[in-house]
Amino acid sequence: MRVVVTGANGFVGLHTVRGLLDAGYNVLAADIIASQLKARFEGVKRCEIATLNILSVDMEQVIKKEDKVLHLAAIARFDQARQNPQKAVRVNVEGTLNIIQACIKKKAERLVYASTGSVYSHDVPIPIREDAKREPDSIYGLTKKQAEEWFFSYSKNLPYVILRYGYVYGKDKDWGAVGAFLKRLKKGERPVVFGGRQTNDFIYIKDIVQANLLALETEHVRQAYNIGSGRAISIKDVCELCIAAMKTNLTMELKPGRAFDFPVFVYDISKAQTLLNFEPKWNLSKGIEDVLRS
Ligand SMILES: NC(=O)c1ccc[n+]([C@@H]2O[C@H](COP(=O)([O-])OP(=O)(O)OC[C@H]3O[C@@H](n4cnc5c(N)ncnc54)[C@H](O)[C@@H]3O)[C@@H](O)[C@H]2O)c1
């Protein structure tokens, strides 16, 4: 069984390609930039690497009948989407449509799409269920929601699975809460916390890899799933955990909050637990220790 992974050179992609190979899959790892893929996987058995742009390459030439496709390629950062909304729409919406069309045409086995909690409105009931209102407050969230709509309205009989990841952290992500905190602490600098009381649902990259693999096999397709820990933790507490894990006397520097942060964000993950058999295995302190070990 071959899995085509788009955006394979990114943070989630690199970890997932490793997880797929370890689980015995053949992998076509594709990205517009393939430097990390080449450094880590060139010459590795059962792994092909393709440098391609999901917008300019005819994806029908790449995807074969019976492939499973994991679509991760995206403009995945809020600031990049805000700076260039047109590009975010092209890559996140049009790029996803290209993949959907190729999967339908080539009769791919299934398409798993990496979506995000940023598709939900800021005022949804907590914990957030999959049927909560989706009126995003960010350009990034809007493009990811628009891509989801193509699955709901256009995907015909294509078996798809939408995974709405929570706040993913792990090795190789040195920005955002956890990543940026550890980066600054390692340099002997104070970590900067914006706001601080807002909560998020932090999920370790190894649990995300688990969810991706489950989504590639589940019989419960044509569904969207929240993929998180199901626990709310404030950004201040996350920073304290990073400081404790680094065993340092440095303290956090507090700055005003940002409008695009949810005041409270935590998932109801019971649908993924019941239908996908998804069970997060890493709590935040264990995850931070694992990042520091690796
Ligand atoms: N990291 C998170 O916290 C998080 C949370 C929720 C959802 N997601 C989603 O998960 C997916 C992966 O996120 P990530 O953190 O690995 O992001 P990332 O930015 O590290 O990786 C995205 C990859 O897509 C590639 N890409 C961009 N445009 C492309 C194009 N036109 N053609 C081919 N490849 C292209 C980039 O080169 C990059 O390697 C994204 O779809 C993102 O929206 C991530």
Quick synopsis:
The protein has ten helices and 13 strands. With 294 residues, the chain is an alpha/beta fold. Helix 4 packs parallel to helix 5, helix 6 packs parallel to helix 8 and helix 8 crosses helix 10.
- Identify the CATH homologous superfamily: NAD(P)-binding Rossmann-like Domain
Which CATH C-level class is it? Alpha Beta
Average pLDDT, all residues: 96
Largest sheet: 7 strands, parallel
Number of helices, counting only DSSP H or I runs of 4 residues or more: 10
Which structural class is indicated by helix and strand composition?
alpha/beta
The portion of residues assigned to helices is 25-40%
How many domains would you count in the coordinates? 1
Q: Rg from C-alpha positions?
A: 19 Å
Strand-residue proportion: 15-25%
- H and E string: EHEHEEHHEHEEHEEEHEEHEHH
Question: What would you note in describing this structure?
Answer:
The protein is α/β, with parallel strands linked by helices. It has one domain (2-168, 204-229, 267-281): Rossmann fold (3-Layer(aba) Sandwich). Helices cover 39% and strands 18% of the residues. Strands 3-2-1-4-5-6-11 form a seven-stranded parallel sheet, sandwiched between helices. It has a two-stranded parallel ribbon with strand order 7-10. Helix 1 crosses helix 7 (205-217) and helix 6 runs parallel beside helix 8. The two termini are 30 Å apart. The mean pLDDT is 96. The structure holds nicotinamide-adenine-dinucleotide. Nicotinamide-adenine-dinucleotide is lined by residues 6-7, 9-13, 31-33, 53-55, 72-74, 76, 91, 95, 114, 116, 144, 165, 167-168.
